[in-house]
Amino acid sequence: QAQLVESGGGLVQPGGSLRLSCVASGFIVDLYAIGWVRQAPGREREGVLCISSSDGTTVYANSVKDRFTISRDNAKMSVYLQMTDLKPEDTAVYYCAADVGADCSGQYDVWGQGTQVTVSL
After folding, report:
1. 36, 50 Cβ separation under 8 angstroms
2. pLDDT of res. 88
3. Which of 36, 50, 99, 118 has the fewest CB atoms inside 10 Å of its own CB, making it the most exposed?
């Protein structure tokens, strides 16, 4: 059974950094694009970043450009979201999700359970 498990969330002060991890199991993660999607309270889910199977990056949220980076380590079945200069508006539950193909299409069919990121003093 295909699964994704996120970790690394927590409480951080504005301007701080966090690195989220997403570990895959039950499928060949090398073959799929993996995205990070977030959902803030009272708001719809928002795509953040995606990395294709060939390491191409797609930025969905302009607000994170130059602050967040996505990377993958297929040997560890893992995808990472490095977040820097965090702002209160980055507060959300962050999900990793497997795209339906090798390229970033924004269509996901496997989701993790989410990890909470809270940016506050």
Report:
1. yes
2. 97
3. 118
CA-CA distance, 89 to 100, in Å (whole number)?
A: 29
CB crowding 66-91: b at 16 or more within 10 Å, else e:
eebbbebeeeebbbbbebeebeeebb
Q: Which two tokens stand for residue 105?
A: 């299409």
Q: Which residue in this structure is represented by tokens 């699964």?
A: 3
pLDDT digits (tens, 9 = 90+) for 54-84: 989 998 989 999 999 999 999 999 999 999 9
DSSP labels, 8-24: --EEE-TT--EEEEEEE
CA-based torsion, 35, 38, 44, 46: positive or negative? negative
Q: What is the DSSP letter of 42?
A: T
Q: Are 27 and 1 in contact (CB under 8 A)?
A: no
> How far, in Å, CA of 4 to CA of 15, rounded?
28
**Which is it for strands 108-111 and 68-73: parallel, antiparallel or unpaired?**
unpaired
Tell me which residue of 114, 112, 79, 109 sits closest to 94, measured CA to CA.
114
Q: Residue 98 pairs with which residues in a beta bridge? A: 34, 110
